[in-house]
Amino acid sequence: MELLNTFALVTLLVSALAIIVLVLMQHGKGADMGAAFGGGGGSSGSLFGASGSANFLSRATAVSAVVFFSMLMLISYLHVANDSKLGVMDSSIEKATSQIPGGAAKGNASGVIPE
Fold first, then answer.
1. Tens of pLDDT along 60-75?
2. Does the global pTM surpass 0.85?
3. Phi, psi at 84, each rounded to 5°
4. 62, 61, 34: which is closest to 48 by C-alpha?
5. Nearest alpha-carbon partner for 34 in 61, 71, 67
6. 34 neighbors 40 (Cβ within 8 angstroms)
7. Do 78 and 3 meet the contact criterion of CB atoms below 8 Å apart?
8. What is the C-alpha to C-alpha distance for residues 21 and 23, in angstroms, rounded to an integer?
9. How far apart are CA 49 and CA 74, in angstroms?
């Protein structure tokens, strides 16, 4: 179970970084980081072709998002399945025993002080 949790956490981190990088590489309305990696203008000699960068980056971002949210659901399921305890409240609660005041007689445990 611990191995699956570690795998899910590592996959979650990798997919989060992939989403960040892929979103930064996509070109928007202005000049951004996407233009530096072949997403600018109509350069047919770029890495992804003339219009291939938008489709590839969009699909890769969508796949990374699906992986990210799937790993989030898996991690939450693993933690809920392992967390059947109530935490601090799960420990055994000691029953409160009636305490006899120091000056009272042990035979008179009713709590009434004799006059």
1. 999 999 999 999 999 9
2. no
3. -85, -10
4. 34
5. 61
6. yes
7. no
8. 6
9. 37
